[in-house]
Amino acid sequence: MNRRIIGALIGKDLSLFFRNRFFALMTFLGLIFYLVFYFLMPSSVDETLKVGLYAPVMPPGFEQIWEEGLEIEVVETEEALKEAVTEGQYIAGVVFPADMMEKFMSGQKPKINLYFAADTPAEIKDAITTVIRELAYLQTGQALAIEVSEEILGPDMLGMQIPPRDRLRPLLAVLLIIFETLGLANLITEEVERGTIQALLVTPMSINHLFVAKGVTGVSLAFGQGIVFMAIAGGMSRQPLIILTALLLGGVLATGAGFLIASLGKDFMTVLAWGILVFIILAIPSVGIILPGAVTGWVKAIPSYYLIDTVYQAASFGAGWGEIWQNLLILLGFDIALVWIGIMALGRKAR
Amino acid sequence: MNLKHVGILLGKEFLHGPKNYIFVMAIVMPIVISLLFSLLLGTFFTGVPKLGIADEGSSQLVTMFKQQASISTKEYGTATELKQAVESGAVDMGIVLPDGFDSSVKQGKKIEITAYTWGESLAKNRIILGVTIANLVRELTGQEAPVDIETIILGDEISIPWSDRLLPLIVLMAIFLGGLMLPATSLIKEKEKKTFEALVLTPASVGDILAAKGLLGLILSLFMGVVILILNQAFGAQPVLLVMVLALGAIMAVELGLLLGVLLKDVTTLFAVWKTAGILLFGPAIVYMFPQIPLWIARIFPTYYLLQPIVEISQKGGAWPAIAVDVFILIGINIALIAVVMLALRRTKQFAV
User: Fold this and answer.
1) Domain-located, residue A177
2) Domain identity same for A102 and A212
3) Is A146 inside a domain boundary?
4) A73, A230, B137, B209: most buried, per Cβ within 10 A?
5) Are strands B111-118 and A146-153 parallel, antiparallel or unpaired?
6) Do A113 and B68 touch (CB under 8 A)?
């Protein structure tokens, strides 16, 4: 293997890649767009139902029955409560009547007013009404016919939930890598279209040199962007070595997919059409992270699952080598298979 | 018009359509924009709490849970399936109701049940699910609520969530990107490459060609409209009515697309028209975004009569009487547009072919 030839080819490929305005722009703008999108997303999780309460007379022991997840703030006047609800400070405002305890004592039903802002969704109104009704049951000491014991499945993230943007961070890095398949595929297709690939093959360069150079270019572009994104978005703070390994294997996966698309594509439009299809397929496992439980076991047949799951587990939960080595091994297997199939298909086309 | 010719041409359009940049964009763009908006607005991760139930008998509680608007309920066949669903995060909490649950609680027997909770479930979801379970068990046992609760809405009706305000824009984009741009670019490209004249020399008539291109746009437009409404959980209680309105909107988009395709000579001009005259299409969506703008302004734009019924059905739970007038106006616009396309087509026959 001649390093000088490969180096020259990589230099030529990179120059060709950035000469295509669409892909050059998409590479830089894409990275910036992903970063801007990341920083615009909510950076915290509001786990609690924040409710304002105006109670001229506070029922005895009422504070003791407040549960985790329900934050009740006492407000001085009903007017202040209404203003705070309108401004969105509280999800709802509760007003206890002054004669609440007397009515409880005499067996009458006191009337509780619940204030909501006009844009409060119906399900939230129902939920708050249910919560307040249950608090009233507890206040009046009415026993429940069932005893509920709680069993938490999986790590209990109560109080330390992953913010939406951090949940999506590994996903954005992986999507950035997958998108690179299009750039690499177009690079190869352009060479085939212009006939420069045949011209190159009559030089001392062998077809192996060509694939190594294209592979290094593809992996560098995909892997490089993934690292830059994760580093700027603060995704390297937990298990950086595992994340780097996974992103590198992801870069190889993108390269293999790029080879395969290039073998199918005839021009820019066909590369784009096939590329979007491959992109959508490879992005499917991300649905499992965005909407937990939405996808079933079949999603493990898609190679990118092992990349997305590894980066997510490592970056969000600090999963170590012991927990994700199987993922990396399967991903490596898919990488080898995809790159081999891609090279075979592309080799046939180039010859 | 020959249906066989239209069918053959439509098959060709389906075969080559996906290679068209606009075809790809018509599918990808509305979905990406819809996802981006819901992610940025934080609505993606804030659905109603989800409860899973494995009923080993035939408890009334299951029906009672399903009637609750504040939670989403899913039934599982076995306790094992339920636990798997909780572990994967498909539901926030899962409970197993033993056989004879209802009769036992009604007799006042104390029953112990386990609430399997997903570790990543939010505290507020846990509390809503917990109190809903307790409330409904109390209701089942005949306990009477010790208080009367009155709900009072503060502020004016102008306070509409941003996710709802943006929906009309995304729906319009989904309908018009495929419905208008696809037939228009396809026709213009045929004219540019001179294949349009070649096609007309075959037994297929100009009408057959336009019908095939229009049908592809119509199918894609309608499909994307439905997809966007499903993605935004805005299908409402009248799905058939909503699909009918979407179909009328798709027809409007296709007619405009065919008109532009017939009249314009190149794709660059088409994009220039899309950019400058886009306000005529998206004007009402902007009015919906800012409720301070008087609604009469939106009525000036033809797409208002498509958007208003969609908003009425999907966001306000409206039915046929609430949308009938707008739908008839929309049908009227569509008929008028057919006449305009026919007129433009005559010119095409005279000058282009």
Assistant:
1) yes
2) no
3) no
4) A230
5) parallel
6) no
Copy the structure tokens of residue A314.
């490592």
CB proximity A244 to B under 8 Å? no
A77 and A18 in a common domain: no
For the segment B156-211, what is each residue's pLDDT rounded down to a tens digit? 655 566 777 778 888 888 888 888 988 898 888 888 877 777 777 777 777 888 88
Within a domain: A93: yes
Query: What CATH number should be reported for the domain holding residue A96?
Result: 3.40.1710.10
Amino acid identity, position B129: L
Whole-prediction pTM: 0.67
- On whether residue A148 sits in a domain, the answer given is no
Phi (first) and psi of residue A153, to 5 degrees:
-105, 125
Confidence of residue A156 (pLDDT cuts 50, 70, 90): confident
Number of helices and strands (H, E) in chain A? Answer: 13, 5
**Backbone region of residue B149 per phi and psi (left: phi > 0; alpha: psi in -120 to 50; beta: other values):** beta
ipTM of the shown complex: 0.75
Which residues of chain A have a CB within 8 Å of the CB of B42?
41-42, 164
Please check whether residues A269 and A336 belong to one and the same domain: yes
- Minimal Cα–Cα distance from A329 to chain B, Å? 23
| Beta-carbon count within 10 A of B183 CB | 32
Choose from A40, A135, A148, A291 for mutation: most chain B CBs within 10 A. A148
Q: What is the distance between the alpha carbons of residues B120 and B89, in angstroms, rounded to a whole number? A: 8
User: Could you tell me which chain A residue has the CA closest to the CA of B24?
Assistant: A273
Residues B266-325: tens digit of each pLDDT: 877 887 787 777 778 888 888 887 776 778 888 888 999 998 898 888 877 788 888 999
List, as ranges, residues 117-146 from A with C-beta within 8 Å of B. Answer: 117-127, 129-134, 136-137, 139-140, 142, 144-146
The 8-class DSSP code of residue A63 comes to: G
Structural domain including A86 reads: 49-139
User: Are A15 and A96 within one domain?
Assistant: no
Do residues A93 and A7 both lie within one domain?
Answer: no
Instruction: Verify that A84 and A120 share a domain, yes or no.
Output: yes
Check whether B350 has a pLDDT greater than 50: no
Nearest-CA residue of chain B relative to A266? B19
Alpha-carbon distance B140 to nearest alpha carbon in chain A (angstroms): 10
Domain ranges of chain B: 3-41+161-351, 50-140
Strand, helix or coil for residue A119? coil
Are A124 and B70 inside 8 Å of each other by CB? yes
- The total number of structural domains that make up chain A: 2
The answer to whether residues A129 and B170 touch, using CB atoms and an 8 Å cutoff, is no
Q: Which residues of B touch A116 (CB under 8 A)?
A: 151-154
CA distance B70 to chain A (A): 4
CB A251 within 8 A of CB A177: yes
Q: Verify whether the Cβ–Cβ distance B108 to A145 is below 8 Å.
A: yes
Q: Which of A70-84, B196-210, B254-268 has the lowest mean pLDDT?
A: B196-210
Same-domain pairing of A132 and A252: no
Q: Do B120 and A162 touch (CB under 8 A)?
A: yes
**Domain range B50-140, CATH architecture:** 3-Layer(aba) Sandwich (3.40)
Please tell me if residue A72 touches chain B, with a CB cutoff of 8 Å: no
A-interface mutation test, from B31, B45, B53, most A Cβ less than 10 A away: B45
| DSSP letters for B3-18 | HHHHHHHHHHHHHHGG
Cα–Cα distance measured from residue B149 to residue A122, given in angstroms and rounded to the nearest whole number: 15
Q: What is the pLDDT of residue A294?
A: 67
